[in-house]
Amino acid sequence: MAEKFDVKLSEKYYMPDPSYKQNSWLGDYQKAYNDFLKDPDGFWDRVAQELHWFTPYTKVKEWNYPYARWFTGGKTNITYNCLDRNVANGRRNKVALIWRGEDGTERIYTYRQLYREVQRVANGLKKLGVTKGDRVCIYMPMVPEQIISMLACARIGAVHSVVFGGFGAAALNSRINGAEAKVVITADVTYRRGKSIPYKRVIEEAIINAPSVEYVVVLRRELDQPVEIHSEMEVDFYDLIKDVSQECEPAVMDSEDPLFILYTSGSTGAPKGIVHTCGGYMVGTYYTTKYVFDIKENDVYWCTADPGWITGHSYVVYGPLAMGATIIMTEGTPDFPDPSIWWRMVEEFGVTILYTAPTAIRMFMKLGEEWPNKCNLSTLRILGSVGEPLNPEAFEWYYRVIGKKSCPIVDTWWQTETGMQMVTTMVGEPMIPGFAGKGIPGVIADVVNKEGKPVKPGTGGFLVIREPWPSMLRTVYKDDERYRKYWNTIPGCYAVGDLAVKNAAGYIMVLGRADDLIVVAGHNIGTAEVESALVSHQAVAEAAVIGKPDAMKGNIIKAFVILRLTHSPSDRLKKELLYHVRITLGPIAMPSEIEFVQSLPKTRSGKIMRRVLKAKELGMDPGDISTLEE
Predict the structure, then answer these.
(1) How far apart are CA 431 and CA 554, in angstroms?
(2) Taking the CB of residue 565, how many other CB atoms lie within 10 A of it?
(3) Checking phi first, is residue 263 left (phi over 0); if not, alpha (psi -120 to 50) or beta?
(4) Which residue, 58, 199, 389, 521, has most beta carbons within 10 Å?
(5) Among 304, 313, 193, CA closest to 261
């Protein structure tokens, strides 16, 4: 029997200019999807053939549920496809990376320059004894050396484990020990809101009980007062590569060799070390960068994510560079020194594709339209969203204020575990605010009940992926049982852990995590739906809701609300918000309590941590909060 969800579906379509579909790499979505369904292995074979293989693979896919092997027997190196291939194919003098520091400092790397720097750092790592299969932890700010270090590891077959630079010593230590890292690459400081924030002290504390670490490589940025390098274990980043060769042959990697480990926190338990492999991940990120963003030779592409997260791995580094794109990377915050900084970047660099998070979009909504309106955003042609559901009000604002009603929005759903985008509205297809879209060609996404049976359109259920895909995780590092759980929760499916609803046209709306479901008087209410209703009120900037135990109803809904700067808390406003939710969703979804707050607990990737709110409300232990933003 299907789960019953109370869902009010929007059917407001936005039709993009027909030229987007006509000029896109994909062309007609339905034809491309049907071609994939007719011959899935042939579909992925055609994509993989666009990349370089030292030794051709003998089989596209081997599927022994729940384990997959992709491009069996194939030998490749992802950095060869990101760098060597582009240098050889006429892009040697094309700009690969534009970096802008918080103080306005700029560095620009052509593909030739990036290629040489990666090889130097790769040779530097070899000097430290790093070999194929060794793990290297990268704990750095958003500087070019972060990307260069990732690519240098992949060049020699070392497995990188990038840890977001905002983590504290305990969280960093658990990830260093979890991966058994041989080398840690870090920096002395990062810069945020005009202040210098030290990193090295965090590293020094994090490696006290990390017996696997042999060396710490330190990028010293404050040269007027350089931090001390302790020669027993520490090495200066640029001293390491001072006298090394600029040539380093790429390691020949089997398609199924590990490329990286990336730790992600679950709702409970220790962080999970998600393992991605060389061949399938390369194909998946290349394919989605090309077709989801419809990226072309002259595009200037800006994904605002930190490479410390999967979005940064896939869509700052590997996918765009495999496509030969020009990418932008910045250090700092989106509202410093003022809230126009991002939009001035778009104008100055002629950004054509912008990929960011709903949290940032809602922040800009709160600050007002005058900031983006100060700048010329006419170069933008495609907008993207990632990290959490893009609520309809944020979609409308993004479309109207940033895209000037002319840019398609690709609202992407995917995970650290999937490695690549899975569900979106492909460029040129009709867009529905609140709906991410459909499974992309190559992905079979569905909404099902607990038995794995499809639910009726308009009925909520569990989002699943029915068949393997190239960039899927292969295991959880040293904990394969946690990997198998993804495939054993719902029969015959990869269970993503999200609730969703599909409309009659097949568009999927992601409602939030399954553990964010609130059961009120027998009705299952998705937190994202109530939050979206609250945010659609003109006074509300952000909202989070939780379920509180209630003797009569089982649970009641409590809302935590951040107001826009132009509004102040009042009992009258609480009544207005309750009425607004009643009208929008119906009385069953009305919060019983509303609390006005100044901030909400979030991960550093921008996701609201509702379980932390709930734990605090109920006086309970919040569990793992290592990903909580300071």
Answers:
(1) 37
(2) 9
(3) beta
(4) 389
(5) 313
Q: Given its phi and psi angles, is residue 268 left (phi above 0), alpha (psi -120 to 50 degrees) or beta? A: beta
Q: Are 475 and 495 in contact (CB under 8 A)?
A: no
Question: Can you list the domains of the chain with their CATH numbers?
Answer: 18-77+258-512 (3.40.50.12780), 101-251 (3.40.50.980), 521-618 (3.30.300.30)
Residue 586, burial from CB neighbour count under 10 angstroms (0-12, 13-18, 19+) = middle
Residue with tokens 């081997």: 62
Q: Nearest to residue 588, comparing CAs of 514, 515, 533?
A: 533
Q: Among all chains, which residue has been given the structure tokens 């499916």?
A: 493
* Cα–Cα nearest to 288, from 331, 256, 243, 319: 319
Number of helices and strands (H, E) in the chain? 21, 32
CA angle, residues 347, 353, 354, in degrees to nearest 5:
80
pLDDT in tens, 259-298: 999 998 654 456 889 999 999 999 999 999 999 999 999 9
With a pLDDT cut of 90, the percent of the chain lying above it is 75
Q: Each residue of 442-460: pLDDT tens digit? A: 999 999 999 999 999 988 8
Q: Residue with structure tokens 């979609």?
A: 395
Q: What pTM does this model have?
A: 0.86
pLDDT in tens, 310-364: 999 999 999 999 999 999 999 988 999 999 999 999 999 999 999 999 889 988 9
Cβ neighbours for 514, distance < 8 A, ≥ 6 positions apart: 462, 497, 498, 499
